[in-house]
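chain below, 388 aa
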Amino acid sequence: MSHYNTVLHQLLNLVPRHQFDSLVEALDGDRYVKTFSTWNQFTALIYAQASGKESLRDIQNGFAVLPSRLYHLGLPDSVPKSTLADANTLRDHRIYEQLFYKLLSRCRDLTPKHKFRFKNPLYSLDATVIDLCLAMFPWAKFRTRKGAIKLHYQFDHAGELPVFLTVTDGKRHEIAVAKEEFSISPDSIYCFDKAYIDYAWLRRITDEKAFFVTRAKNNMAAQFLGQQERPKKKGVLFDFKIETTNFYAHQDYPYPLRLIGYWDTETGLYLEFLTNNFTLSALTIAQIYKARWQIEIFFKWIKQNLKIKTFLGTSKNAVMTQIWVAMCYYLLLAYVKYQAHYRASLFYLHRIVKETLLERASLFDLLHLNSSRLDRLRCQDRQLCLQL
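prediction:
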């Protein structure tokens, strides 16, 4: 297996290097740099994400154990933690933010469609909070004694990819970010919870020829206009056409709405859904909202498997850099999964990469090996290193 480069090297080869270099040049990433380039920084941070390193010293020690592997990675003979810390603090995080969208465009060319029969693009909107120690991150003040940042995502159900991300302080409300940051694509369906209900924004979605699916608020004032269709599917209690009666709500959204009552037999919950889509069946609307849970699973995955809760630096730029590199790593995994038609989950793919990161083996061949063969491969590679 010695004729292969390391798995980490193969993973980094999936990054469009010419686009990366263009971003570095545009944002002066390598200005006044002598040895530790922006690409070196990206390599070290991807290594930290994939291997689960907790600190700068862990990264330094990890590279020091196998110095022969650094040559093919293009890294200098040693990676001092002070050098990496300075790079995280001073080098513009927007390089990795823009790289994320470059990688995203490549991934979306490979992703499968969502599971529904309709052809409309389906997105979920939501945000998750990352708690920070206020004493160490004073720029992220959330409450009197607590710091936090909030990650706002637009999640594409085709391929289960985050297609938009913006990071704000913990106080910023979801709807404020949605109205200012999120763009609306015609004919798309946007699914979100009650936190995003703002009738002016719902009108904007409708005016842009797009659709929304959300939960109805308990205190919504509305009048009955007619019945959309008689309930035919199990769990659908009613399907009404309504309009708001609150003066300000009606001013913001003067169009008819569709209100669906649904009894979820799996959870025993009664739910009411609000939408401007009068074409899809009531059961499909309920299933769309149920699919919104995928973004919650995504949040859980990135918090458990990526390093976005503990940070390698305390400056705002260092935190933003780590978040964007983490998302770039997520997209690299997704690209491998869809390129190789890998059927298992991203979790298992991440575990394979983590366990074989500095091994010399074909990354795509590893996806088809069982655990016992992976163990033998690692054992053979270690014996080769000892002989050398």
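Residues 316-339 form the longest helix (24 residues). Residues 208-289 form one domain.
thats it, cya
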